[in-house]
Amino acid sequence: MPQNYFQKEIETMSAEEMKKLQSEKLVKQVKHVYENVPYYKNLMDEKGVKPEDIKGIDDLHKLPFLTKADLRDAYPYGLLAKPLKDCVRIHSTSGTTGRRVVAFYTQKDIDLWDDCCARAIVAAGGSNEDVCQVAYGYGLFTGGFGLNGGSQKVGCLTLPMSSGNTERQIQFMTDLSATILCCTPSYAAYIGETLKEQGYKPEDIPLKAGIFGAEPWTEEMRQGIQNTLGIKAYDIYGLTETTGPGVAFECSEQTGMHVNEDHFYAEIIDPDTGEVLPEGSKGELVFTSLDKEAFPLLRYRTRDICVLSREKCSCGRTLVKMAKPMGRTDDMLIIRGVNVFPSQIEAVLLKEGYEPNYQIIVDRVNNNDTFEVNVEMTADKFTDKVSDILAMEKSLANAMKIMLGINPAVHLVAPKSIARSEGKAVRVIDKRKLI
Amino acid sequence: MAIKQLTVFVENKQGTVVSITDTLSKHNINLRALSIAETQDFGILRLIVNDEAEAERILTEEGYLIKITDVVGVKIGDAPGKLTEALKVLNESKINIEYLYAFMARTEKHAYVVIRVEDNATAESTLENAGFHLITKEDICKI
């Protein structure tokens, strides 16, 4: 199969050249961060590291880590490395002030992000001949704008559909002969099922490829989507903290994602000791932004458990490959593409006057995530009227929707009915088989 | 004047209601009337018993969520149209009924209706002025 690249010289660069490029960028980046981000300067000073100690990528391990807790402490501007007048956009994750991540972008940051997504689209066989339907949400979420930028950079005719309204998605897909679909894998599966119900056969659907990410999905799910839509389905990885989708992307081999390591350097560490592990080891994925200007996180701990590989890839790309994340080192759930922490549910309950006795039940039915929250009824909230209790469930669901951006089904249950093991309530039951 | 209803939060799980009635019977609590309102997730069990304070104590001890609610009890003649008469009186006074349930007296030729309204006092005086006989806690114990 002939290979196309968006930026061939980078994507197929030799290991030595890549290391040289990364080293040059890192030295500059550390200086930029040290001079402009007092928060990180303090971390470096505490560790006794000076910018001049970082002479290349081999010195990266000397730098302190950043964690979600740092993002919380520094919210909102504490990790900003450019004056706001140089920034052109923000993106954000869901959540409370504490859990929400607000990332800033200069125009240059947007451009390099667009490049990353463009590489993903070209690796999936995209070119300026293609019609690219972007059915990720547009807005604070990075998915829609990220793939939109990449699609335009490749020169695809871009359909900025955003998520939802499946009937309209299908109309535009068929009327305008969309050839590439970008959305969450569960939404792709849903669109596929809907097309099937309407009598479409895979060969009647104009799509040839899909770029699906923002949530975990299995190999079985990939096969299912590929069969119903008659396409090749590619994985894409990213997080708001580093930039958004496009940090890593799949090629025709579909055996892991190439990391855009000229922009985002990947390390695998032991989550307990912080020690860098050799290639092929399973551990926590850490990213260093090598050339982003406004929000350049150094050694950011993603909490994703992963493996990196430099084995030669048949696509010709030399970029290091990461496996699909195999789990988390924290309690974060990804539901319908949205990051959910149990503590967010707890915060809503306390605010609404409930005891923090709850259980989150997540499942996947017909390729869609179901999201239920059971909450124990309290003595002072209990009434003898059904309508009151239904209204309480509705208002709790609404408060959670405001907090998380997705709508749970809330059930009020009897006191002490939530299973407790060793006295501790089981907060999360995830019935999805994703790994 | 209002009578006391024992309200119990129950999950839609097999055996919940029987375990409640069983617990009450073991403590010699006599049920006078019972009604259940249910949704997919939960039910609300409403009971009229001879000793609601004791019943509340026992069920709370068992871990149930209990609320004592004031409701209006009214005696209705055991003949067609008698309930309608009472409801018409309330309707004419624009008193909204949240829910109601009825039970028969054992010996007398009467039915009793338990009515839940927002404002008990108004409902009671409205019914009494129209000639209805309200039931009291003493009546409940005698039934």
Describe what this molecule looks like in 3D:
The complex is a heterodimer of chains A (about 425) and B (about 140). Chain A is built from eleven helices and 22 strands. Chain A has about 425 residues and is an alpha/beta fold. Chain A has two domains: about 10-330, Rossmann fold (3-Layer(aba) Sandwich), CATH 3.40.50.12780; about 335-430, ANL, C-terminal domain (GMP Synthetase, Chain A, domain 3), CATH 3.30.300.30. In chain A, strands 3, 4, 5, 6, 7, 8, 9, 10, 11, 12, 13 and 14 form a twelve-stranded mixed β-sheet that branches. A four-stranded mixed β-sheet of chain A has the order 19-18-17-22. Chain A has a two-stranded antiparallel sheet with strand order 1-2. Chain B folds into two domains: about 5-70, VC0802-like (2-Layer Sandwich); about 70-140, 2-Layer Sandwich (Alpha-Beta Plaits). Helices cover about 35% and strands about 40% of the residues of chain B. Chain B has five helices and seven strands, in the order E-H-E-E-H-E-H-E-E-H-E-H. In chain B, strands 1, 2, 3, 4, 5, 6 and 7 form a seven-stranded antiparallel β-sheet that branches. The model of chain B has no long low-confidence stretch (mean pLDDT about 90). The interface of A and B includes residues 377, 382, 384, 387 and 389 of A.
Instruction: Identify the CATH homologous superfamily of the largest domain in chain A.
Output: ANL, N-terminal domain
CA-based shape of chain A: globular
Which percent band covers the strand fraction of chain A? 25-35%
- CATH class of the largest domain in chain B, named Alpha Beta
Strand and helix order of chain B: EHEEHEHEEHEH
What CATH calls the topology of the largest domain in chain B is Alpha-Beta Plaits
**Number of DSSP helical runs of chain A:** 11
Classify the secondary structure makeup of chain A into a structural class. alpha/beta
| Global outline of chain B | globular
Poorly predicted runs of chain B are none
CATH architecture title of the largest domain in chain A: 3-Layer(aba) Sandwich
Overall pLDDT score of chain B: 90
Q: Biggest sheet of chain A, open or closed, and with what strands and sense?
A: 12 strands, mixed
Spatial gap, N to C terminus of chain B: 17 Å
